[in-house]
Amino acid sequence: MSDRVRVEVVQSVAYVTLNRPEKLNGLDLDMLDALVDAARTIRTDRSIRGVVLQGAGDAFSAGLDFASAGKQPSRMAKAFAKFPGQKTNLFQRACWVWRELPVPVIAVVHGHCFGGGLQLALAADFRFTTPDCTFSVMEAKWGLIPDMTGTVTMRELAAMDVVKRLAMTAELFDGNQALEWGFVSGVSDNPIKPAQELLSQIMTRSPDAVAATKTLLHKSWNRSPRGAFWIESRIQLALMRGKNHKIVRSANTAKTLPEFAIRKFG
């Protein structure tokens, strides 16, 4: 894995740190590859119960590093390519892999959160930010559109007129405004604290049920009632046959804390 991204696992939580502080964690092609590799590595470790995405230094991420990417035109072209059977290109995949992980992912945001950095944060399940963090859909400044999965994640969080305004203007906004518009889950002077508190709370629940809930909501959110109900039933039956459901039932009956088995779902 590239040193562009650091991964440290502490008490079953993977801390994933964008590690290019001298460039405000600008996203170059190496970092995009490293983000994908990090998520894939985490997916293989079923003992991991959650992820914290964060940035080293003074920013979460200032977005795509156009200067660096522009020096590698052939690699850029390959990064935009989608091969048969693929849902995403590299730019999209670097964000979407976090959404597809079967564990909760929390972005802890500070400093700048621009462009591709914002779209990476929005691909997390939750986001906590400092009040003075500066956000922007910065692509508009470069004559571009948000194309790193933001068309899906932004529509789930904010009203269309807000998204249009930001994507057409590259307007800067702070953490409190981000909360008002629905882009973040909470604002704190020390955002790692509410992130860790939320993960601690989630980790008291069955890892299979947590993974299943994430899958259920992502697959059913925009489905018809008929489709959503079918997904509910299929996932619930799988959970009811699982070991962790039996562990929870026994613990609840005995009024003890459950000791969960390794996650099987996802």
From TrEMBL:
BP GO terms, sorted: fatty acid metabolic process
Stored Pfam families: ECH_1
Function: Could possibly oxidize fatty acids using specific components.
Reactions this protein catalyses: a (3S)-3-hydroxyacyl-CoA = a (2E)-enoyl-CoA + H2O; a 4-saturated-(3S)-3-hydroxyacyl-CoA = a (3E)-enoyl-CoA + H2O
Protein name according to UniProt: Enoyl-CoA hydratase
Family from the record: Belongs to the enoyl-CoA hydratase/isomerase family.
Alphabetized InterPro entries for the sequence: ClpP/crotonase-like_dom_sf (IPR029045), Ech1-like (IPR045002), Enoyl-CoA_hyd/isom_CS (IPR018376), Enoyl-CoA_hydra/iso (IPR001753)
NCBIfam families for this protein: PRK07509.1
Keywords assigned: Fatty acid metabolism, Lipid metabolism
Source species, domain of life: Bacteria
Single Gene Ontology MF annotation: enoyl-CoA hydratase activity
